[in-house]
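Methods — Computational structure assignment.
A single polypeptide chain was analysed. Its primary sequence is given first, followed by the predicted tertiary structure written as structure tokens.
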Amino acid sequence: MFGDITEGRIAQFADRLSERLFVAGHWSANTLSGIFQKSLIFTILRNPRDHAVSNYLFLYDEPNQPQHNDARDLGFRRFFLENVHLLACQTSSILAARTPYPISAREFVNHADEVLRFLNQLAFVGCLEKPDDLAYCLPAALGLSEPLNLRWLNSATDRRIPKARIAELQAMYDDLARDPALRQLIDIEHQLYNAALARVHGRERALGSLKRSWENAPTVHFAASNPSVMTEIGQKVAEGYWGAPVIRLRQKPGWGVYGPYLDLPPGMCTARIWLAGPLYGNATIQLTGDYGQTILNSLSFDLARLSTNVLELATVLPRPMAWCELRLRCDREVHADVVGMDFRFSIAPRAYFGRSWLAPKRLRPLRKRIRNAL
């Protein structure tokens, strides 16, 4: 959800927070205080000099922005002298989430320690200049099943501006940083960025382990004919769609497929059910542990609208989980053939689940609420 993220707007989606609703933007203090304990909040910072240059070029090129004319008419130095808060844009974004009123440059200095404390409360803090950390550690923190594709990073940095022009603007920024009237404000922005870099450096060992575990993640396959793959309402057919064994589901409500009751290690886990034939009806796929007592994740699908013949579910196992089951709950309209299921998982390094950077105490009630809601 983007755009309007006022308190009233967020309240409309309060019940969906347990379904990993993604909200991006600059938060007001009252909005953030209402959902902080219910959410996993992360931020990505950028080198302050590059961020200031990028901000200026964006405003210079975008005629719909309120400060577009100022950026063109005043030039780089005068523009920032008249809009000093933009020299600490990342700090001001965080302060906007913590203070319910506009603040002056002097108040930036007074709130510097508060900003750093708030940064340390976030579940993940990354840096744009550390793409490997973002590609591997951020999806791990969010519970995603694959590394992120960050090809957009390079295209987002210079907006096709000549390198000589960027170097010229960077030199102007360095000159502003030596101005006694601006030095303290710019220093705060650099302190914030250095704190983010410290978080990234603290994940270096975990990053290496995550990269190896994703690159070598094993996949375990179970065909529909496997005795561990069972059905309540379907029929096992020796030669179904494509001539392969399938479990045939034909318009009966109940558990279309379930099993195979594996013991899985902690870490990233992606479970998939492979389908064939004409598909329609609504179904819910669930990944559970402890013989169905702990629901780890759940998603509902309209089979007629699938872009592929695969139902996929991803989660993070915080601990070794016994008797893990993948199951498909069907309504009475479901028409499909189940070809099989598979599990792709990787063992997470111990640092991945360390309290220093992931899974703080406040996330534990969230997991419990998600399971109960499902």
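Note: Residues 40-201 form one domain.
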